[in-house]
Amino acid sequence: MDLQKEFTSLRNEISELKSLLLHQTTPEKDSEQILTIKECSKLLNLSIPTLYTYTQKNKIPFFKHGRKLMFLKSSIINWIKEGKVKTTAEIEAEADNFLANKKK
Fold first, then answer.
1. In a domain, 57, yes or no
2. 67: domain range?
3. pLDDT of residue 2
4. Which residues does 60 contact at the CB level (< 8 Å), separation at least 6?
5. Within 1-104, where are the H helices?
6. Per the structure, how many domains does the chain have?
7. Is residue 45 part of a domain?
8. The domain spanning residue 46 has which CATH number?
9. pLDDT of the chain, 104 residues: tens digit per residue
10. How far apart are CA 64 and CA 79, in angstroms?
11. Which residues sit opposite 72 in a β-bridge?
């Protein structure tokens, strides 16, 4: 009898884990999420007027559907990464690489 109870308990736990895994958001789905201006503002910690300014000056990737602005989360994350300031070591490595290729 105890073996049957243990088996049933394990089976229920496996079902619960399977359910949790199926409902978990995958990074690919999450990154393809479309954001409203309010959601993008919250993600970037910027005010909505600042975002409007960025879109008017084409400083940030966005889509416009009618009068609504929309942002693709993956594009926003890539935009943030593009603005990364390089470290001194990265700049020196690029310079060394450039000079090595120029001598050839």
1. yes
2. 34-82
3. 81
4. 51, 54, 71, 76, 79
5. 2-23, 27-31, 37-44, 48-56, 73-82, 88-103
6. 1
7. yes
8. 1.10.10
9. 687 878 788 888 888 887 777 776 555 555 589 999 999 999 999 999 999 999 999 999 999 989 899 999 999 999 998 888 888 988 899 999 998 887 76
10. 17
11. 34
